[in-house]
Amino acid sequence: MSTLDLKAYLEKEGRAVRAALEAAVDGLDALLPPRVADAVRHGLLSGGKGLRPVLCVTAYRACGGGSGDRVYDAAAALELIHAYSLMHDDLPSMDDAALRRGRPTTHTVHGEDVTMRAGAAMIPAAALQALRGARALGCDEVTSRRAAAVVVEAAGAGGMVGGQWLDLMGEGRSLTAEELADLHRRKTGALLTASVVLGGVLAGVEPPVLSGLERYGRAIGLAFQIADDILDATQSAGTLGKNPSDAVLGKSTYVSLFGLDEARRRAADVVAEAHGALQDAGVDAPALHALADYIVERDH
Ligand code: GRG
């Protein structure tokens, strides 16, 4: 769909995201016991793709937000939430995972108690990161608070936490297609949607464009999850860098419900929906189109 060199784009953006994340943890050093700050570093800086901040920054630029580097600070709020969610998701009381991003999980290195505290500290830190990041970009107070609210709402019971709850309650039984879609719209989709919406809010776009970004975000959120289910069913823990698999955990997935072929067809349909959303909203952004394709073509 585009001639953009996405690999180079992701590497360049990834470096800028990492610098903002390092600055964010440095800012927490004065507030947290060193053991807790070390656990935050482990969870936040251990080689994730940085997809959510990259989506935010890309949407911001596509919406005329300018090309400066300041936007990475606000975008880092999304990764603080994402990283805490993975740290807590891996805990023995949830998925009890030993491996994440090809490395030992945070609690296996830093302990369960410290990881719980580190994750808890990252939630309000994310809200402040979005608020202060928006102010530093020159957004007015209403917009800055809205930016923080976008992140917090997506992370909350109506979004990611609620989706995780449905996920845990669904283990060991077969969910209906509607239940599975609702679970993933909240657990994974809400934060991915918030990522592009935050970019639009920071850039000060008009409501119709924001709706288009939201539609795009919902579509890539679903595409991301279907692709995740396909990868989980077809790749080894070594390739994916994480364990245990959905099958071991007794989770319903798009593959267990519909089979591989139908899951692939549905992933292609929702990526087409994402492209359509951008076109309908008049958002001319080759990188957002390329990111939608990447979400289903990635290998981990
Ligand atoms: C207390 C019920 C309760 C919830 C706490 C733990 C939690 C909140 C939420 C878990 C949410 C979760 C694990 C969502 C899955 C998101 C997902 C698909 C992660 C993989 O994303 P990538 O591929 O990861 O972007 P990298 O490693 O690249 O950052």
3D structure, described in words:
This protein has 300 residues and is mainly α. Helices cover 75% and strands 1% of the residues. It has helices at residues 6-29, 34-44, 51-62, 71-89, 106-110, 112-136, 141-155, 160-170, 177-203, 207-234, 237-240, 246-249, 254-258, 260-281, 286-297; strands at 99-100, 103-104. It has a two-stranded antiparallel sheet. A hairpin with a 2-residue loop joins strand 1 (99-100) and strand 2 (103-104). Helix 1 (6-29) packs antiparallel against helix 2 (34-44), helix 3 crosses helix 9 and helix 10 packs parallel to helix 15. The longest helix is centred in the last third of the chain and has 28 residues, at 207-234. It starts with 5 loop residues before the first helix and ends with a helix. The mean pLDDT is 94. It binds geranylgeranyl diphosphate. The site of geranylgeranyl diphosphate has 17 residues, from helix 4, helix 8 and helix 9.
State the gist of this model.
This protein has a two-stranded antiparallel sheet. The protein has helices at about 5-30, 35-45, 50-60, 70-90, 105-110, 110-135, 140-155, 160-170, 175-205, 205-235, 235-240, 245-250, 255-260, 260-280, 285-295; strands at about 100, 105. It has 15 helices and 2 strands.
Rg over CA atoms, rounded to whole Å, is 18 Å
Give the low-pLDDT segments.
none
The number of strands is 2
Mean pLDDT: 94
Strand residues, percent: under 5%
Topology:
Layout: H1 6-29, H2 34-44, H3 51-62, H4 71-89, E1 99-100, E2 103-104, H5 106-110, H6 112-136, H7 141-155, H8 160-170, H9 177-203, H10 207-234, H11 237-240, H12 246-249, H13 254-258, H14 260-281, H15 286-297
Antiparallel strand pairs: 1-2
Bound molecules: geranylgeranyl diphosphate (GRG).
